[in-house]
Each structure stands twice: as C-alpha cells, then as structure tokens.
Amino acid sequence: MTIEIREASVSDSRSVLEMKRKLDGQTRFMMFEPDERSMDVAAMQSEIAQLRAADNSVLLLAFAQGTDVPVGYVEVTGGRFRRNRHVGSLVIGICATHTGMGIGTALLGACADWARAHGIGRLELTVMVHNDRAIRLYEKSGFVVEGRRVAALMVDGVAVDEYVMGRIL
C-alpha cells in the first residue's frame, strides 16, 4: 500500500476531527475517552492554524493511496520557551483498519525529517507501559525509555503507568 504523508491544512479540519474521534473509540491507548472530545470543526481549524503558524510544531497526516481521508497522524508540539524550543512532544494515532502496514514507521520517519529541518533536536512522548506494539515501533524508530510515570493515567478505573520515551535527533 502506498501512503502519502503531508502537513495538515485548515481545509483538513473536518476529516482530522472525525479521524481523532474515531481513534478515541477504537483504542484505549489514546488520551481521550470515547465521546470525551468536545472540539468542533471551528476549534480544529483554529488548532491547525496555530500549529501551522508555529515554526516548531506540525500536524502530519497519512493518507492511503487514492483517498482524501486521513488514516493516521503524528502531531508535534514544540516548546514555547527559549530553553525548550528544540524539544517536540508528539502524539501519534493510526486507525485500526490501517495498523500493521508501516504507517507508524512512515509517520515517525517523516516527523524526524520535519523536526530536523525545523530546529527540533529532541522528540519525546509518553506511552502506556502495556502498549507493547507501540513501544516496539518507538524503539525501532530510535526512541528509548527514559523513565516511568507511576499511576499517570486512570483507564476504566484502573491506574496505569506510562513510560517517558525520548529520541535525540
């Protein structure tokens, strides 16, 4: 399968919001619970516009060949201060119908390329400690576990630990 990866534009707002809501319901590994995301299209337009205006933040979308609906994304939010502008915190999500096809690897590769070109020297993320598939993807992409946040999340009433992972570019 051929995957196209490109930066999100404001015109993608509706499809990005729909994809993120879909992901919220498909997996217990994303931050939002199903139906918790209260954002509307106008708010998504504003969020994408803010990301595009920042020189150290981006929303990259993955599209399956011949479609105009995103099947995955990686969002990088750069630090806001001089001391951490070189750090990008990322979130990644891939629709269940398209996992295991190399999209995560492609998104993280495109993310690293974008980051280097925009003065980001460090990427970081958090991942639930039992999300083995994601951890393998991150390690394959050069991330290392730097620490553990104990009881960082409550998922279905159960405390869940997270790893903090980082990659120096």
From TrEMBL:
| Residue stretches making up the N-acetyltransferase domain | 3-169
InterPro entries, per the entry: Acyl_CoA_acyltransferase, GNAT_dom
Superkingdom assignment? Bacteria
Which PROSITE patterns would you find in this protein's record? GNAT (PS51186)
One matching Pfam family, short form? Acetyltransf_1
Question: Any idea what this protein is called?
Answer: GNAT family N-acetyltransferase
